[in-house]
Design goal:
It is a single chain. The chain is an alpha/beta fold. The chain folds into two domains: 150 residues, Rossmann fold, CATH 3.40.50; 121 residues, Rossmann fold (3-Layer(aba) Sandwich). Helices cover 38% and strands 20% of the residues. A seven-stranded mixed β-sheet has the order 2-1-11-10-12-13-14, sandwiched between helices. The chain has a five-stranded parallel β-sheet with strand order 4-3-5-6-7, sandwiched between helices. A two-stranded antiparallel ribbon has the order 8-9. Helix 1 runs parallel beside helix 8 and helix 10 packs across helix 11. The protein is globular and about 55 Å long. The two termini are 17 Å apart.
């Protein structure tokens, strides 16, 4: 199953449900599908063809989600780049993955402009936020693009994403993920949208990591609302959970500890949280014990696995 179907299905079942909450903006599933279609057509106009790579380097934002699903519709391959990587690591990852188009945030333009002449595959640079010489402006591209629907041919075993691991024993390693890498898990473990049930998932883990991407896939297929935090900050996290009545969260143990330790913890109503999934690092016993005691209505799930699986 091509993963673009996750969004297609949900946008038909619950078109008016909020898909994304980010920076005070709310995007419904029908609007998200429309933005994805326009981005896919815009990227095709920039020269993206089947099998090409589309890279993104930016903190968490709705454009990450749009870029992935647009890539899937184009039968292209999505490459999320670690925005915390050094210039030499970014150069290595871009040369290794050979993207045709690179989407990036304004905080990374200086680095990208130094690197891009060395990336022979690059045909275009797209600026996610703002305007800069030599860059296509993301929102302007969408405004001027067609929303014609595309019908991808890629299926289960075809490559959909190249995700780089940390490279603790050398350079970052590109992991080849097929559509089935995601759909086999999602279709088994996540129920499709229920028109009578609404859930909200706060997303804080980075979208260059498998945990963040898997959370997005599950939320989109399940018709959940994604509350996106650019980067984790405990007070903002607690505020968003309280204001938006988030039901689900994905965290690493350090994040959970920072929330529990914060002096403002008692000032926030976090009772809406039904499930906190944690992983990516070992959970200290004393932290999970405190979490169970301090968040008594919340279930905790320990998720683990390799990027490759």
């Amino acid at each position: 199953m091509n993963t673009s179907e996750f969004l297609n299905i949900t946008s038909l079942i619950v078109p008016d449900r909020t898909a994304v909450i980010f920076d005070g903006r709310r995007i419904t599933y029908s609007d998200l599908a429309l933005r994805v279609a326009r981005l896919a057509n815009a990227l095709r106009q920039l020269g993206v063809e089947k099998g090409d790579r589309i890279a993104t380097m930016e903190v968490n934002c709705n454009e990450h989600i749009e870029a992935y699903f647009a890539s899937a519709k184009l039968d292209a391959i999505y490459v999320p780049i670690n925005f915390r990587a050094s210039q030499s690591e970014v150069e290595y990852m871009l040369n290794d993955s050979s993207p045709t188009v690179l989407l990036a945030g304004s905080r990374y333009t200086d680095m990208i402009e130094l690197i891009s002449p060395k990336i022979e595959s690059l045909k275009a640079l797209v600026l996610i936020d703002g305007v800069a010489e030599g860059w296509h402006a993301y929102e302007k591209m969408l405004d001027s693009s067609s929303d014609d629907e595309m019908f991808p041919e890629s299926d289960d075993d075809d490559l959909t994403m190249l995700m780089f691991t940390a490279g603790t024993t050398g350079s970052p390693k590109g992991v080849m993920l097929s559509h089935d890498s995601f759909s086999s898990y999602i279709l088994t473990n996540v129920s499709p949208p229920d028109m009578e049930v609404e859930e909200k998932n706060i997303l804080t883990v980075p979208l260059y990591h498998i945990a963040g991407v898997q959370a997005v896939m599950a939320a989109i297929y399940g018709g959940r609302t994604l509350i996106i935090q650019r980067q984790f900050e405990p007070v903002e996290w607690m505020t968003l959970v309280e204001q938006e009545k988030a039901n689900r969260a994905m965290m690493v143990p350090t994040m959970l500890k920072m929330v529990l330790d914060h002096q403002e913890f008692q000032n926030h109503d976090l009772s809406s949280l039904q499930v906190i999934t944690y992983g990516a690092a070992p959970m200290p016993l004393e932290v999970i014990r405190r979490a169970i005691a301090m968040l008594p209505g919340t279930f905790f799930i320990n998720a683990f696995g390799q990027t490759e699986t």
